Amino acid sequence: MTPLEIIASALGITSVWLTVRQNPLCWPIGLVMVLLYAWFFFDARLYSLVLLHGVFAAMQLYGWWQWRQDVDANGKRPVSGAGRNEILIGLGVALLFGVLLGLAMDRLTEAIHPWPDALLTAFSLLAQLWMALKRWQCWVLWIVVDVLYVGFFAFQGYWLTAGLYAVFTMLAVLGLREWRASRVQPA
Asked: Transmembrane segments in this chain: where (predicted)?
């Protein structure tokens, strides 16, 4: 465990907890966390994760902006659900992107685990997009992705990061419950 990993983990837990609570401070704290993790993963030669965290940095800014749009009387953007087409298209695009990224990482870099790294990256991006749009289904996808990341990081001996993703999984379960309860019902 490095100090960088410890700080990034603490910020990650804080950011996800704030997201569950629908507090917009989740975005700037998340931005610092993803930048620190990008550095950590670069040192670990997990390049898809470096790319993921670079995109997550942009997504943090997008989410911060998005959560300020269409706010309700309480100053919050309401939670909504993704439609069937949005879910199917999103999952299909994520799978295609994951396969293409895995192929690129396998052939063009010395990435240690290009395929699981790329596929988890692709589905993480979809979950992050749905989170920025405040779709409650983001939590379902995060639960699946986070459980897989726990195994991925444990396999590599990154125990603190594996533990962080276990905490993320628990927070995602809480987020799913809270966001579903607060979602806007279709008229």
From this structure: 25-42, 49-67, 87-105, 117-133, 153-176
